[in-house]
Specification:
By secondary structure, the protein is α+β, with helices and mostly antiparallel strands. Helix content is 39%, strand content 15%. It is built from three helices and three strands. The relative contact order is 0.10.
Length: 111
């Protein structure tokens, strides 16, 4: 009985797979390029054929020793992400020295 159920499940799984699964060269599947960290992803030199590729970075998941999270974005987004990290770092460093942030404070009139 168990063998019959297993063979029926196996037959159904073969029906679900397309006949020419590996021959889809015309498909526009997203290409992935892997980088070690966000800074390297922003500075990565991409060839013309991989210009639209998504760059993936593995980051450790907080609260776990073994789990990772894969983050994939286009290179323009990695550049913007790294720029925002550098701006935030610069603002935190200046706040410790008592310097105002680079943006001007817009408050109520008369102050």
């Amino acid at each position: 009985m168990l063998k019959l159920g297993f063979s029926a499940a196996l037959a159904v799984s073969f029906l679900a797979v397309p006949a020419f699964a590996g021959d889809d060269e015309g498909d526009d599947k997203p290409q992935y390029v892997y980088a070690k960290d966000a800074h390297r992803a922003a500075k990565l030199k991409l060839s013309d054929e991989n210009k639209d590729a998504r760059i993936c970075v593995r980051q450790k998941q907080l609260g776990s020793r073994v789990r990772f999270q894969r983050i994939c974005m286009p290179q323009e987004e990695w550049i913007a992400y790294v720029d925002s990290l550098e701006d935030m770092n610069r603002e935190w460093n200046n706040a410790g020295k008592g310097l105002p942030p680079e943006t001007e404070f817009v408050g109520p009139a008369g102050i």
